[in-house]
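User: Can you predict the 3D structure for this chain?
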Amino acid sequence: MFIKYFKLILILSFIYQIPLYSKSDNLKNFNSEYLSNYFSGVVAYKNKNNSDALKFFKSSKILLNEHDPYLEKYTNSLVVEGKVERAVNEIKQNLKKNNSKFFEARLLLAIDSLKKRDFNKSTIYLDQSYEFINNNKISLFIYESIKQFIYTFQEGKILETKTNFGNLSLINKIFQKCYLNNKNTKVYFESLINNTNDTDYSRYIFFFINYLIDNGKFEEAQKITNDLDYLNSPLLILQSKKWIEAKKFHEFKKIFSCKNSNDVVSEFLFLIANLYSSQNNYEKSNFYLNVSYYLNPKFKFNLTLLAENFYLNKNYEKVKKTLEYFDKKDDFYYWFKVKKHAQIISKEVDDKEALNFINKKFKKIDNPSIKIIFDIANFNKNSKKYKNAIIYYDQIISMVDTNSFIYANLLYRRGSSYERLGNYLKSDKDFLQSLEINPDDAYVLNYLAYSWLERKYKINSAIQMLEKAYSLQSNDPYIIDSVGWGYYLINDFLKAEKFLKTAVELMPDDPVVNDHYGDILWKLGRKIQARYFWTNVLNLKDTEDKMKKNINIKLIEGLKAS
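Assistant: Here is the predicted structure, written as structure tokens:
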């Protein structure tokens, strides 16, 4: 009885906190079950449990005509679940009512009209959306961009505007020029791709290649992919390189054409989805990603973002469902699928089972590319199967230019595997050879120097390497820890404390850093504080058993006896 009473109080208090009764406050119009379902839907919606939200909203659909917020939440939930056309139909049925007065409603209608090539109607809906932007900069960018795209589709020229969103506006202009087959399209693509700021524009290499192929410039397309390497390129570029090498030029147009208005706007909406994902707003990201897919369902590779969003939200069942879109003929996207399944197994079962899964899948791949071998090597290394990792690194090392930075990086990875196995002769050889190629690699300097410190070997040389590493990467907490530990080993405890204090502030949950800081404090006579940090090590989830044993000795007998 108390539970039912409490539930009623909760529902009534909720009614007075949100604008449920914007049209009517007559309680006779409502069934408490509908209100309860609506309330549950809103709670699920706010908690980002979109499937549950949609279920509850369906159960309370009778409230559609009575509550202004209902349609917005219901249609947003439909879109996030991939039911874009259904959301559009719901909005159309409520178009003349107040409950359809929100930005996404008019935007969806504009997109639906654009999909049907009804640019006049799309413009009308888009203009109506402007009223509901409410100072949201991304919404303004969406409005301005789609307005420009529609103008280009209708008028056959680019709309000049004073509104500038930096390189985002440049990207839009490139696609408009590509649509119009403007003679300067190539120059604009090259300007974007060769941009020297910190933003990664490598995705647009695919669209540049697509443009070149569409204009019969196959040799230029091949020249671009020749300069790309398999180890450091994103998925879409890897797939592009493989298609070019296999002379499967027709594959590009199967998924995108910049002369197709739907494809162009779809790519723009994918950009918006990426922006929201980078802000950890995965619901908004999935909303725009599904609208993008609604416009261009050929571009299934974009669904990797959907899978990543679900994974980051720990919605593993939806990740698995999304991954079903990819199969073996999709090459690198199939391998993405395998890796993502392995990551889920690691979360749901354990690392051992995940490793067994990915190793079995790898062995079934005929002639795996260097990228796939690289990934399986790293997977084994991260799972502490160093001998297996070395076998794979050996294969890759034999395939690459011995003077390249890639070769140096592979030596570093193989060297660190040897170091973990205690084969210091081979690890030092790999590290030193890597530094001959790239002497300013802070992470190789740090790893080798720290290894020498741990072995009490060439301590002064190790400290010199660490000082150089620190000058190159002064904000890296692992390098800061190594520098501090180096000073500890030469009994410069004051300098050591300065660095270790910074390291523990940057990595408060790292067992090694806490252990090191405890040792420093003990040497400085601050024994109570030292025991505090040692005790903290015992409570950290990543602390290994051997370290726990040493910590327990230090807590009882002090540093001298450990």
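The CA atoms of residues 255 and 297 lie 8 Å apart. DSSP finds 31 helices and no strands in the chain.
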